[in-house]
Design a protein that fits this description.
It is a single chain. This protein is α+β, with helices and mostly antiparallel strands. The protein has one domain: NAD(P)-binding Rossmann-like Domain (Rossmann fold). The chain has 2 helices and 2 strands, in the order βαβα. The chain is globular and about 35 Å long.
Length: about 80
């Protein structure tokens, strides 16, 4: 089995009031396991978190790559994008 090396977290935008995000501590925990983390710009902002909240003490979060771009323009209305 291959170990996970990279995880991207897109913003949840299906419903305007949707506030479903992982806490910065969980994202930092994943990064501590040598997993590169990429956050879509604005990830966590509706819940009051900033990009810096997620990056505290980790070079694995957003390291050497731009923040994940939005792919919403590629999806049909009410469709979702799942990546494994």
């Amino acid at each position: 089995m291959t170990a996970i090396k990279t995880i991207g977290f897109p913003r949840m935008q299906k419903e305007p009031s949707e506030k479903r995000v992982f806490l910065p501590e969980f994202v930092q925990y994943l990064a501590s396991k040598n997993i590169s983390i990429y956050l879509e710009e604005g990830y966590g902002s509706r819940s009051g978190f900033t990009f810096d909240d997620y990056c505290q003490g980790s070079s694995e979060i957003g390291a050497d790559e731009p923040r994940t771009p939005s792919y919403n323009h590629l999806l049909r209305h009410s469709a979702s994008l799942n990546c494994f």
